[in-house]
Design goal:
heterodimer, B: mainly alpha, 15 helices
């Protein structure tokens, strides 16, 4: 009797080992700069500037983190304000994006209306260009709306992304059988009931993924041309200023960089199986 | 239309209500998407034919912005050349690398695959940790690249990596590729993971004899939908490159060696307020990104046939 596992051609054990070793090599290349960053954030001052430079600290210390807290406490705008700004932007922006994208995706996936195909083609086209292309005119629009230098300038454009709608719709297409919705309609359920009580629980992976992507984007919000008041600026902006503070600030700078990267990384690790499940349905049919 | 006419008045009314409900579902999202994503491109195209400094009303100047771009703006030509080079290397290059890595990862066991996925994906979401590369390639002897090469005796004095036009482009490409294993990579990981092993068994019976044939005739056609989506993510990201080169090599970089259209855009749109000209650059960037995307979509549809 043959076993049914691993029926793929050309996978000798030598091939597997080479495959694994190559991957390990690339993985080391990917993580080394990050390990170096974490390592440097624990280096005492005298180890940051030695020749030849050392990769990991010999006498690890929390000094850089303590200094970071000191710098934070002494900044013109209290650091808690930067943190509050980033959390507010990330929370409201993400919530809006998930809600609006999901509502729209439900109609695109499970309802029929005139213009549906054309509108979805526009969404796919909008996936093809990046924020850079919209930057200049977004600035003009936001200034016409009188939203310059307000939270609105950060948050409202983040409410509606083509990626959010696209991912939610593709997931709903594959994961929600029409029969479930028909049964609910026969039972007299209203559309809002169907959406919140039946559809959304079934596409949890998709909105968890959208929360992650949206949070990553908004967490990384840095200096922009639409907000110039210091007390409306973000954590990423404030930490980048420290990081750009030059040689004397290298220690605190790496501590700041660690702080910025650890949050999205942890969030992703916690939710990665949801993300992979969602991306499996993200394919584009020709 | 004929079918609708046969319906009773009340059925038609229900149908109309259903259509209105559908529009109600998409309305909030679509209004905002229209205003902040679709309208900006349309407005940029219109403004690209004007002179506009944001203080006075824009006035029409025909093709002058485009003529200026290609005839008198030397920096633009450099930026265009750099952007095309980077876009081709980072777009298709990053795309193929992320696909290849995801394919290699798919051969691993479950736990180790998850670990590798996190490790490869991490740089793309780590904010501006790529700034650390400027320490690794720092121009004095404290930089890692210099200290290793000095130690080995390859060089006798430190190289100013990030201001030497011979090395800047290479370094920007490496660092950009390092950050490019993002959503595109996850799409491939998920795509390869979802392939039913039965296809491979059927392939073996049909006479597929090595893993490259297997890749071309079985694997790639199955994940073609993922390939189409990941291509869009890779390419639109590649054309908007500029943040990495600005962070590592400064703004503007030495001899504009890694200066891109995105940098040029923020110069004219953000610093000089020459919005008409900036919009002309925007329009060109839009056309290049979408054009290249559509071209690649056609290529991918030819796979495995």
């Amino acid at each position: 009797m043959r076993t049914m596992t691993n029926k793929k051609v050309g996978r000798g054990s030598a091939g597997r080992i080479i495959n694994f070793l190559v991957l390990c090599g690339i993985a080391v290349f990917m993580v080394l700069p990050m390990i170096y960053t974490v390592g440097s954030s624990f280096k005492p001052l005298n180890e940051l500037w030695v020749y030849p430079p050392r990769f990991l600290p010999q006498n690890p210390t929390w000094n850089n983190y303590q200094d970071l807290v000191t710098v934070m406490n002494n900044s013109l705008v209290p650091f808690s304000r930067y943190i509050f700004n980033t959390l507010l932007i990330a929370a409201v922006g993400t919530a809006g994006n998930v809600l609006l994208s999901s509502l729209s995706a439900y109609a695109f996936s499970k309802r029929r209306f005139p213009g549906q195909r054309a509108l979805f083609e526009i969404v796919k086209l909008a996936l093809m260009y990046s924020v850079v292309v919209m930057g200049i005119v977004r600035f003009l629009l936001i200034s016409w709306f009188g939203w310059l230098n307000s939270y609105l300038a950060y948050i409202v454009p983040a409410f509606a992304t083509s990626l959010g709608l696209y991912l939610m719709k593709q997931f709903m297409d594959q994961m929600i059988p029409d029969s479930v919705l028909e049964a609910a309609r026969i039972d007299g359920a209203g559309e809002m009931h169907i959406f919140f009580r039946i559809v959304m629980p079934m596409v949890k992976s998709a909105w968890v993924t959208l929360i992650i992507f949206s949070f990553q984007d908004l967490w990384a919000t840095g200096a922009t041309n639409v907000v110039y008041s210091e007390n409306l600026k973000t954590l990423n902006y404030a930490l980048s200023q420290i990081l750009a503070g030059g040689v004397a600030r290298t220690g605190i700078g790496t501590a700041a960089a660690v702080l910025m990267m650890i949050v999205p990384l942890l969030v992703f690790i916690v939710a990665q199986s949801n993300v992979i499940e969602t991306m499996a349905t993200s394919g584009m049919k020709d | 239309m004929k079918k609708a006419a046969k319906l009773t008045a009340s059925a038609r009314r229900t149908q109309r209500i259903e259509i209105c409900k559908s529009y109600a579902f998409i309305l909030p999202h679509f209004c905002l998407l229209f205003v902040f994503t679709i309208l900006p491109v349309a407005i940029a195209i219109v403004l690209s034919f004007t002179y506009f400094n944001t203080l006075e009303a824009p006035y029409f100047i025909g093709l002058d912005n485009y003529v200026r771009m290609f005839t008198t703006d030397d920096v633009f030509m450099t930026a265009l050349k750099n952007t095309l080079l980077l876009a081709v290397l980072l777009g298709p290059g990053g795309y193929l690398i992320s696909m290849f890595l995801a394919w290699m990862i798919s051969e691993l066991g479950d736990k180790i695959r998850v670990l590798m996925t996190v490790l490869f994906y991490a740089p793309s979401i780590s904010g501006n940790v790529y700034l650390i590369w400027s320490v690794l390639f720092s121009g004095d002897m404290y930089g890692y690249a210099n200290s290793i090469l000095l130690e080995l005796g390859v060089i006798s004095s430190p190289i100013n990596w990030l201001a030497d036009t011979r090395y800047m482009m290479g370094i920007v490409i490496v660092v950009s590729l390092w950050t490019s294993m993002g959503t595109n990579f996850l799409t491939f990981v998920a795509g390869f993971k979802g392939i039913d092993r039965q296809y491979y068994e059927a392939g073996m019976i049909d006479g597929i004899s090595n893993r490259w044939q297997e890749l071309w005739f079985i694997t790639l056609p199955i994940i073609r939908p993922q390939m189409l989506f990941a291509a869009i993510i890779s390419i639109s990201g590649a054309f908007s490159c500029g943040a990495v080169s600005e962070a590592l090599c400064g703004f503007p970089s030495q001899d504009y060696a890694v200066y891109t259209l995105m940098n040029h855009l923020s110069d004219y749109g953000g610093a000089r307020y020459e919005m008409g000209y900036a919009c002309a650059i925007t329009t060109l960037l839009f056309l290049m990104t979408v054009g290249f995307n559509l071209f690649v979509q056609r290529l991918i549809k030819k796979i495995g046939v």
